């Protein structure tokens, strides 16, 4: 039980460290808070919340893993290296896929509600 608490502490420290060093993660966190705020304002249904939270969680988790991949690659490869480029590009692509999915989920859920208010 004590180990669980310690592990959680290190995990929070990991999020904090990633936020401090990675610009993209900061942007994703800001978008996350804006989306949650918009969701509260527009009154999402339970199912809509599930999709929004799933999409947000997927993007943030992949961002963190992408940061780890970048760090490990920098340690493994000194200077420019074709494989280092491949690893980083593919890892970044994983984030892009999740972010695109999240944007689509956001559009499907939020656009009709926004149009209803505006029209
Ligand atoms: N060692 C390397 N060899 C070849 N290409 C690399 C290498 N490191 C990074 N790149 C290329 O640069 C891109 C950006 O990599 P990375 O995010 O590590 O750069 P960065 O300058 O640290 O950027 P940031 O500080 O925004 O994270 C990679 O997707 C890859 O295409």
Automatic annotation (TrEMBL):
<keyword id="KW-1003">Cell membrane</keyword>
<dbReference type="Pfam" id="PF01219">
    <property type="entry name" value="DAGK_prokar"/>
</dbReference>
<keyword id="KW-0444">Lipid biosynthesis</keyword>
<keyword id="KW-0547">Nucleotide-binding</keyword>
<dbReference type="InterPro" id="IPR000829">
    <property type="entry name" value="DAGK"/>
</dbReference>
<feature type="binding site">
    <location>
        <position position="70"/>
    </location>
    <ligand>
        <name>ATP</name>
    </ligand>
</feature>
<feature type="binding site">
    <location>
        <position position="63"/>
    </location>
    <ligand>
        <name>substrate</name>
    </ligand>
</feature>
<feature type="transmembrane region" description="Helical">
    <location>
        <begin position="27"/>
        <end position="44"/>
    </location>
</feature>
<keyword id="KW-0479">Metal-binding</keyword>
<protein>
    <submittedName>
        <fullName>Undecaprenol kinase</fullName>
    </submittedName>
</protein>
<dbReference type="InterPro" id="IPR033717">
    <property type="entry name" value="UDPK"/>
</dbReference>
<feature type="active site" description="Proton acceptor">
    <location>
        <position position="63"/>
    </location>
</feature>
<feature type="transmembrane region" description="Helical">
    <location>
        <begin position="50"/>
        <end position="69"/>
    </location>
</feature>
<keyword id="KW-0594">Phospholipid biosynthesis</keyword>
<keyword id="KW-0443">Lipid metabolism</keyword>
<keyword id="KW-1208">Phospholipid metabolism</keyword>
<keyword id="KW-0460">Magnesium</keyword>
<dbReference type="GO" id="GO:0046872">
    <property type="term" value="F:metal ion binding"/>
</dbReference>
<keyword id="KW-0418">Kinase</keyword>
<feature type="binding site">
    <location>
        <position position="22"/>
    </location>
    <ligand>
        <name>a divalent metal cation</name>
    </ligand>
</feature>
<feature type="binding site">
    <location>
        <position position="10"/>
    </location>
    <ligand>
        <name>ATP</name>
    </ligand>
</feature>
<keyword id="KW-0808">Transferase</keyword>
<dbReference type="InterPro" id="IPR036945">
    <property type="entry name" value="DAGK_sf"/>
</dbReference>
<dbReference type="GO" id="GO:0005524">
    <property type="term" value="F:ATP binding"/>
</dbReference>
<feature type="transmembrane region" description="Helical">
    <location>
        <begin position="90"/>
        <end position="111"/>
    </location>
</feature>
<feature type="binding site">
    <location>
        <begin position="88"/>
        <end position="89"/>
    </location>
    <ligand>
        <name>ATP</name>
    </ligand>
</feature>
<keyword id="KW-1133">Transmembrane helix</keyword>
<dbReference type="GO" id="GO:0008654">
    <property type="term" value="P:phospholipid biosynthetic process"/>
</dbReference>
<dbReference type="GO" id="GO:0005886">
    <property type="term" value="C:plasma membrane"/>
</dbReference>
<keyword id="KW-0067">ATP-binding</keyword>
<keyword id="KW-0472">Membrane</keyword>
<feature type="binding site">
    <location>
        <position position="70"/>
    </location>
    <ligand>
        <name>a divalent metal cation</name>
    </ligand>
</feature>
<dbReference type="GO" id="GO:0016301">
    <property type="term" value="F:kinase activity"/>
</dbReference>
<feature type="binding site">
    <location>
        <position position="22"/>
    </location>
    <ligand>
        <name>ATP</name>
    </ligand>
</feature>
<keyword id="KW-0812">Transmembrane</keyword>
<comment type="similarity">
    <text>Belongs to the bacterial diacylglycerol kinase family.</text>
</comment>
């Amino acid at each position: 039980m004590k180990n669980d608490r310690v592990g959680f502490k290190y995990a929070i420290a990991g999020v904090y460290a990633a936020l401090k060093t990675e610009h993209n993660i900061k942007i994703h966190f800001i978008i996350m808070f804006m989306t949650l705020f918009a969701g509260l304002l527009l009154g999402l249904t339970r199912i809509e919340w599930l999709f929004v939270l799933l999409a947000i969680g997927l993007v943030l988790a992949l961002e963190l893993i992408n940061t780890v991949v970048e760090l490990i690659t920098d340690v493994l490869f000194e200077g420019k290296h074709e494989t280092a480029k491949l690893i980083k590009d593919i890892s970044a692509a994983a984030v892009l896929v999740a972010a695109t999915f999240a944007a689509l989920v956001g559009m499907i859920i939020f656009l009709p509600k926004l149009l209803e208010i505006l029209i």
